[in-house]
Structure of Alpha/beta hydrolase:
Amino acid sequence: MNSKALMSGLLCTLISFNTLAGKVLDAPPESVSATDKFVFYSHGYIVEGDNPKPVNTKQGWGVYDFPAIKQALSDDSYTLIAHHRAKNTDPFDYAYKLNQQVRTLVAKGVEPKNIALVGFSRGAFITGLTSDKLSDLAINTVILAGCGRLVWKKHTDVKVYGHVLSVYEKSDDSKSCSKLDEKSRQTRSFTEIQINTGLSHGAFYRPIKEWVDPVKQWIKTRFK
């Protein structure tokens, strides 16, 4: 094969790859269509700040690989919105911001059923707060190892709505979301998955198939 043909083939491959690759954005785009689908991922507390790959040495959970998680959660069937929050972001303020972003998408024609909120740990708390604010739209909600604060006495008024998925690690202190399910009487469905990797909270620090695969499969099922 001559060099010109080789370059042409490589160019076609790159174009094909870029077309199929899922979009990962920091914020929702200005221009959307009614058929677009969006997933919002909210990371854990340790990532807040300037470092997208911080290391947890206290509990030994290792590197929180935010870039790798974004890549793994992206998909050609939807746009992933994954903002890197500033240090010590107020979760209530940020939930209000997410609420506004989702409502803006819906106002532009995106169907609520084609939007999903996904959050881990502190990000799961933010996701729960946002789901509560969007009770009238019933957005799809995914809680990853983060039901603790959502069922504390001071947060007993917070409920989740729409179709809900909970994923937690057996060896983690953040256990089942059953209590959140009990008080959230108006969910359209509630599904819970327990994984067993022995990695505690750190199981969600990296995009391992045990949680990434069921989360993406669940989202795609909801988006059909």
The two ends are 43 Å apart (CA to CA). Residues 1-21 have pLDDT under 50 and may be disordered. The chain has one domain: 22-222. The longest strand covers residues 187-195.
